[in-house]
Amino acid sequence: MAAQSATPREQVRNFLPQRICEMIDRSPLPLWDEAEEIRLRLGRPLALHGRTGDLFLAASGAAVKPEQAYKPDRSDLERALQLISSSSLYAFEQELRCGYLTVPGGHRVGLCGQAVLEEGRVARLKHITGLNYRIAREVIGAALPYVSYFVDYHRQRVRHGLIISPPRGGKTTFLRDLARCLGSGAPELGFRAFKVAIVDERSEIAGSFQGLPQLDVGFCTDVLDACPKAEGMMMLLRSMAPEVMVTDEIGSEADAAAIEEVLHAGVAVIATAHAGSLAELQSRPGLRRLLQMQVFERVLFLGRSRGVGTVEQIIDPRSGKVHYRCG
Which of 25, 39, 134, 313 could cross-link 47 (Cys pair, CB 3.0–4.6 Å)? Predict the structure, then answer.
């Protein structure tokens, strides 16, 4: 894992136009510390998103109504593209095909514009008119109070687990820290470091830049970045001999088939999925298949009862036993 001495603020401002940085600097609010997204849309209001919702920013740094906000122009977007691509978008053609670039620090910049198709598939983007800076923030220790529920101490193995919540519920943040705990071990909790392998299809778990994780995912953790989940699980199974396979946002039939192969190899699986309940999970064929097979030994539900990312409940879906309930 790459050592990170710079703060998210220092990292992100290296890839934002100076004019935009100065507007955020002028705000009396702690925007650099609280913002989760900074959105630049051509000719439309400059917007920041945090835990309390959306905020529109004037050139003075004041929070204002959308119609009063600063509206990024073509020069702002061109400068932003120069900064995130080191002045060479062509060199990032593969990343552009996916619609985002990851920059040092693990921060991801999503892009919108006009898709260029070749043989019916997206080859690249042009006329880019929107950028979304998603600021990566680690929450070290978020999973530590709950990691023991995922460890079978008697057999010295990790239990198969699924972390679920509605979108933007903190799943990836929790998953990252759970991988860190398992990959580093916790002698104070009585378990060793496990060999963890992460398939990070969208570069959100480890926030890798040029293949190197920018976020802490554990000492004994290997990361396969920007690879489709199903294919990546097979690659890691063959090449890295993991004890635990970790991946984000499963749901397809291909994901389910790959997870079956991982299970047959005796490797634990920990994943996330978008859902608010087990009933919602059942509506997706791939997940329904895994639930019917009684794959998962622990399902952890995240909610917002005490803020985003609250662990609401941990259950054994096979027996229905509740192992933890918030409050």
Answer: 39
